[in-house]
Amino acid sequence: MAFCIKKNNAMILILSMHGDLSTDLVIDWLRRYNHSFLRLDLTTFLDKSATFSLFPPALSIDEQAIDIHEIQAVWYRRTGAFSESQYFKKHQESLLPQTVRQLYLEYETLTEGFATLFHDRYWLNHPQKASVNKLEVLNIAQQCDLPVPKTYVVNTQSQLATLSKNHPLICKSIYEPDFLDVADKSYMMYTAELTPEVIQSFPQRFYPSLVQQKIDKAYELRIFYLEGQFYPMAIFSQQTTQTQLDFRQYNRNNPNRNVPYHLPQKLTAKLQLLMQRLDLNCGSIDIIKGMDDQYYFLEVNPVGQFGMTSKPCNYDLYQLIAQHLITKDSLYEKAPY
């Protein structure tokens, strides 16, 4: 927990895991503006002395009472997972798998319940909206008249082989990709191309997988969205073979060129509609500009990284987020006791 309390009777609550750099940099600006904040990782309820009450609403961390009535704005960045808590690491070997599952669900419910303490405050992102269903989002994007690559969920080699005759294919995770920690190394999930040779190497039946038409790219767009405003960046990922399929496979020796970008008005309107339909006031959007001059929507991550967009384009997003939170914290009517 980190906090800074001033005498302005307004305080921003930041729900963020320890070590998140984006949070650190926004907090630097809050300190610069001399505005009160409380940074809290919800694993605190597993690893420290922490109590909250629903009736009346109250919060105490390490025996220190927090006046939650002073909190008018909440930023849900991302909090630590149950498996990252010290509690889990200490007890995992002695717990049955069913017990781990139960405790995980208890922690998720605790997170949702804690959010209800601030149901009438301003939220920049919300725990219930922190993770979206990729398949549902693609469906809604198409309803908003956004071009989307042909998308399939496949579980047999024969289905893949049939689809590959119509157009080139790629595969990606259905859920948000995660790091796989093995021994002292971490491995990232990347988008992969399904060539005939790769398809042939698969077993006849496998776990259901997300497969999409491979789009011939001109370049890619990463767009940060904040309350109706778009901050787009073009990524010239096709300049080097290593990043052509997935720009996250960074070429450190020959980095992609990243520049500010002006979105066409029609695309902006469609994306605005999509974010409204998804009930998101913040997020990072990925789009491909195809060689056919079409803009293809890929996905949106409500709590995605935005530092990679801020610095190359001089958007000063950390400062903008701090200013936005201060404005909302100051304007929202103080909650009654």
CATH architecture designation of the largest domain: 3-Layer(aba) Sandwich
Strand content: 25-35%
**Which secondary-structure class do the elements indicate?**
alpha+beta
Domains (count) = 3
Q: Tell me the Rg in angstroms.
A: 22 Å
The largest sheet is:
5 strands, mixed
On the 0 to 100 scale, the average pLDDT is: 89
Beta strands, count: 19
Q: Portion of residues in helices?
A: 25-40%
Quaternary structure: single chain
Q: Low-confidence runs (pLDDT<50, min 5 residues)?
A: none
In short:
The chain is α+β, with helices and mostly antiparallel strands. It has helices at 21-32, 44-47, 86-91, 97-115, 134-143, 157-164, 196-200, 265-278, 307-313, 317-331, and strands at 2-4, 11-16, 36-40, 50-53, 58-61, 64-66, 71-78, 122-124, 151-156, 169-172, 179-182, 185-188, 192-193, 205-213, 217-226, 229-235, 258-260, 282-290, 295-301.
Question: Describe it for me?
Answer:
This protein is α+β, with helices and mostly antiparallel strands and 337 residues long. Helices cover 30% and strands 30% of the residues. The chain folds into 3 domains: 2-126 and 323-331, Rossmann fold (3-Layer(aba) Sandwich); 150-213, no CATH class; 217-302, D-amino Acid Aminotransferase, Chain A, domain 1 (2-Layer Sandwich). Strand 18 (282-290) and strand 19 (295-301) form a beta hairpin. Helix 1 crosses helix 10 (317-331). The chain is globular and about 65 Å long. 26% of the residues are buried. The model has no long low-confidence stretch (mean pLDDT 89).
